[in-house]
């Protein structure tokens, strides 16, 4: 590899998470959020970061008390597989709807509605239905959360780019850090809340509080935005017919399989190995913090070169290997195995998103590739949590899942090599 940058559009893009605008095809172009001076801009920034801080707690909080939920609620084995898979699947299913809703109602109102649905879902899932137990509300609440998070995932980056064009570095760092911190908080604090209250329902209800606070904070700002209807005018390359786009998308699929399996199954894996719930939550939380470090440094390293084959392969193998060692390696070194997985996963997610920028020549194509990656990546990537759950049900342990992620990591390295070549969609 050489250290010269590829000329073109991707030179402008340092933070891929905020460089892709879901409203890029809108006509007329979406106006910036109407604010009242600099204080209004600061208020908007706080709201957007706080929204990001609520986008992953639903995944990591459930897994932190999964044994307690299973025991107390008497959940059948199939339901655990569904509850860990459905929210990730819905990230892909609802992603294409976000730009359509934004054209009709405005991005701010859609974000407000998504936060209302997220709050309702978090309140709903611990409820008990007379004669039916907890399962119906767990399923309905979890599905609502997944749909809401999908809308936020798509629209937040565009709003950040539109309203903070001269502060993309700062807002990008705050926004991406908030999302990672969300998963870490869910993993680290759910079990202590369970210990303090004595019931898993309280531990899950706890996460509705920050979501409701953000909903109330964002409400006055969102409802005063003018309603303007937009039409879609498509530009850029047809990503669905591009071999490069499919290679990048498969890279995203495989990283999503591992990423959401960490949120859904890492804590149960650690507890299955004899680690107590509080320590398991702390280990997962630290691993996610290390993901934050990987996500900060990997894109800058990847964009220094014309191709990203080597870095894509290395971080994919780190992630799959770290996951497998968490299952097979000696527990005395469990912090090392989970740390390796955390650094690898954070870097892997970041470089997968970086492919959006470095494999496209214009912002329209980048936005379409991002939509393809999210729709297919999350939709198919949810198979990872499904397979882990099915293998656990079939074998009674996680050893088969360890082998699975060695295979997934190797496949991610292969598609990362293909996606990392200096070619364009």
Q: Say what the CATH topology is.
A: Growth Hormone, Chain: A
Percentage of residues assigned to helices:
over 70%
Number of domains: 1
Q: Shape, please?
A: globular
Which class do the helix and strand fractions yield?
mainly alpha
Strand-residue proportion: under 5%
State the separation between the terminal residues, measured CA to CA.
Answer: 20 Å
* Rg from alpha-carbon coordinates: 21 Å
Strand order of the largest sheet: 1-2
Q: In the CATH classification, which architecture applies? A: Up-down Bundle
Kindly provide the name of the CATH class: Mainly Alpha
Q: What's the helix-strand series?
A: HEHHHHHHHHHHEHHHHHHH
Number of strands: 2
Q: What's the average pLDDT?
A: 87
Provide an overview of this structure:
GO terms for molecular function: transmembrane transporter activity. One of its GO terms (cellular component) is plasma membrane. It is a multi-pass membrane protein. This is CynX/NimT family MFS transporter. It is a single chain. The protein is built from 18 helices and two strands. It is mainly α and 425 residues long. It has a single domain, classed as MFS general substrate transporter like domains (Growth Hormone, Chain: A, Up-down Bundle). Helix 3 packs parallel to helix 9 and helix 12 runs antiparallel to helix 15.
């Amino acid at each position: 590899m050489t250290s010269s940058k590829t000329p073109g559009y991707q030179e402008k893009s340092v933070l891929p998470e905020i460089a892709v605008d879901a409203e890029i095809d809108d006509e007329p172009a979406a106006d910036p959020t109407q604010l009242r001076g600099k204080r209004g801009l600061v208020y908007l920034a706080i709201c957007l970061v706080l929204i990001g801080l609520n986008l992953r707690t639903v995944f990591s909080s459930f897994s932190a008390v999964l044994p307690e939920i299973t025991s107390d609620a008497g959940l059948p084995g199939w339901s655990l597989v569904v509850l860990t898979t459905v929210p990730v699947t819905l990230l892909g299913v609802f992603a294409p709807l976000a730009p359509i809703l934004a054209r009709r109602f405005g991005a701010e109102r859609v974000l407000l509605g998504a936060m209302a649905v997220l709050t309702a879902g978090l309140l709903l899932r611990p409820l008990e239905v007379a004669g039916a137990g907890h399962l119906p509300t767990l399923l309905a609440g979890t599905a609502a959360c997944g749909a809401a998070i999908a809308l936020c995932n798509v629209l937040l980056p565009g709003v950040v780019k539109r309203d903070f064009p001269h502060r993309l570095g700062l807002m990008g760092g705050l926004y991406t850090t908030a999302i990672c911190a969300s998963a870490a908080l869910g993993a680290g604090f759910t079990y202590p809340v369970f210990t303090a209250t004595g019931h898993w329902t309280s531990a899950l209800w706890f996460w509705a509080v920050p979501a409701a606070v953000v909903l109330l904070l964002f409400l006055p700002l969102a409802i005063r935005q003018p309603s303007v209807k937009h039409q879609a005018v498509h530009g850029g390359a047809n990503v669905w017919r591009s071999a490069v786009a499919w290679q990048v998308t498969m890279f995203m699929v495989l990283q999503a399989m591992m990423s959401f399996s960490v949120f859904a199954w890492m804590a149960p894996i650690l507890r299955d190995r004899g680690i107590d719930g509080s320590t398991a939550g702390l280990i997962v939380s630290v691993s996610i913090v290390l993901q934050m470090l990987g996500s900060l440094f990997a894109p800058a390293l990847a964009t220094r070169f014309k191709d990203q084959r080597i870095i894509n392969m290395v971080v994919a193998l780190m992630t799959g290997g770290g996951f497998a060692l968490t299952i097979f390696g000696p527990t005395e070194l469990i912090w090392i195995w989970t740390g390796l997985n955390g650094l690898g996963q954070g870097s892997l997610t970041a470089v997968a998103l970086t492919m959006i920028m470095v494999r496209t020549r214009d912002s329209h194509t980048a936005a379409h590739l991002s939509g393809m990656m999210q729709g297919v990546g999350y939709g198919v990537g949810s198979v990872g949590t499904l397979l882990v759950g099915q293998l656990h049900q079939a074998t009674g342990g996680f050893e088969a899942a360890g082998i699975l992620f060695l295979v997934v990591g190797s496949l991610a390295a292969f598609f990362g090599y293909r996606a990392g070549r200096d070619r364009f969609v």
